[in-house]
Amino acid sequence: MIQNILVYKQLIITSGDSYYDKYLLSLLLQEILKTFMEQIPSLKSLKYFLKTKSTNCLEFIYSPEAKVCLYSLTELGFYSDIHSEFFYHLSHICQNIQSLSISFSDNGISDGLAYFISSQNNLKSLKLSSCSKNELRTIIPSLVKSSLTLTKLRIHSSDACMASFISMFMNLQKLVLISESKDFFDDFDQLQHINFPHLRTLKFPYSVPKAGPLLNFLEINGKYLNKYYVCDCYESMKLAIAKFCPNLKGLYVIISEEEDDLESLKLILKNCQFLESINASYSYKHLKSKEFYEILVNYSPKNFHKLEMNLFSLQGFEEFFINWKNRIPQRSLTLIIKNTLDNIKNRASPIIEKYHKMGVIKKFKI
Predict the structure, then answer these.
(1) Domain extent at residue 222
(2) How many domains does the structure of the chain reveal?
(3) Is residue 38 assigned to a domain?
(4) For the chain: N or C, fewer Cβ within 10 A?
(5) Average pLDDT by consecutive 10-residue portion of the chain (366 residues)?
(6) Nearest to 245 by CA among 227, 257, 261, 262
(7) 59 within a domain of the structure (yes/no)
(8) Would 250 be classed as within a structural domain?
(9) Cβ distance 310 to 285 under 8 Å?
(10) How far is CA 315 from CA 70, 283, 293, 320, in A?
(11) How far apart are CA 210 and CA 87, in angstroms?
């Protein structure tokens, strides 16, 4: 609610006809914010994404109500260029932020940002969006204090991923690296021989590191992973998953029509005996769907129960559920169909409903 009021405040102040109008609106909304904070004895989460450096939008944090309301704040999100007064004052109110989301602005970084980060005593999760290598360098010293407490790191950038920065956090449990540029992973080789013994989730939603360094990284850290999401799963990568990631429970993988690709999937299912879910992505021309379904029925581990996939053809679709029904052991499926054409969806829906009523499908989304 506070977030919505702040956004509303920004809109109406910008649209005011005169400075006096804006001043009156500012006073009014400050009082509204104070009222909300009086009614919320302990706010846990605040998203403060206002594109302004004006100190008028910061007045609420100076109120006595803010000191009480924000004291126990554990989750905070903001733009990097907020006026430094916001960070300096907030650092004296709340020092136990556990989850921090920073969206880097074209206007640079506020002088108070590093000070605020360094004031936190128990930072566990950090999300950095639209950050450059130079901006990362600016905040690195302030994160040294959190090098042992941080367990989740998400970086979205078109610049280098700064492997030396990532290597600070030896207790990482979740690492997500997002970039549309392959140059982002130019220095990933600095991570290839580093051991992250607590790493459980690894995601590359867009571009991926070069094969050599990534395979070396998996050879060391693959045994720790429970979830692995990779957008470009070349053949050697699938073989590495089967060889180095025996404890996977969730996997995102791209399937092609190549015979070797289906054989690699079979090998993954055989070797990853804890696998519970697969998110499979492909195009119609790149998959022999009947063979894909047969492999799932015959080789998926006993605890496998969730399938998320594209559906561009109904070839072998109903036969898959018939065979799954007769599978021993048989677990009801959670089925998520994505990126589906309307005509395929309309034909698939009655089949899904039929096997949902029979208990073969536990839950579904299409």
Answers:
(1) 45-52+67-364
(2) 1
(3) no
(4) N
(5) 47 51 68 77 82 61 82 91 87 94 86 93 95 86 94 88 87 93 83 96 90 94 96 82 97 78 91 96 67 93 94 89 92 90 89 96 93
(6) 227
(7) no
(8) yes
(9) no
(10) 56, 14, 10, 10
(11) 39
Q: In 10 A of CB 256, how many CB atoms?
A: 18
Q: Record the tokens describing residue 273, joined without a space.
A: 């005996």
State the CATH number of the domain containing residue 71.
Answer: 3.80.10.10
> Residue 115, by phi and psi: left (phi above 0), alpha (psi -120 to 50) or beta?
alpha
- Its pTM stands at 0.86
Query: What is the biggest distance separating any 2 CA atoms in the chain, rounded to whole angstroms?
Result: 75
Structure tokens at 72: 């126990």
DSSP string for 222-284: GGG-SEEEES---HHHHHHHHHH-TT-SEEEEE--S-HHHHHHHHHHHHH-TT--EEEEE--G
Burial class (CB in 10 A: 0-12, 13-18, 19+), 14: exposed
The tokens for 32 are: 């509204």
**Would residue 25 count as lying in a domain?**
no
Closest CA to 311 of 323, 321, 298, 322: 321
Which residue type occupies 355?
Y
Which of 41, 104, 35 has its CA nearest to residue 72?
41
Torsion angle of the four alpha carbons 257, 258, 260, 263, in this order, in degrees rounded to the nearest 10? 10
329 residue type, one letter = P
Q: What is the 3-state secondary structure (H, E, C) of 320-336?
A: HHHHHHCCCCCCCEEEE
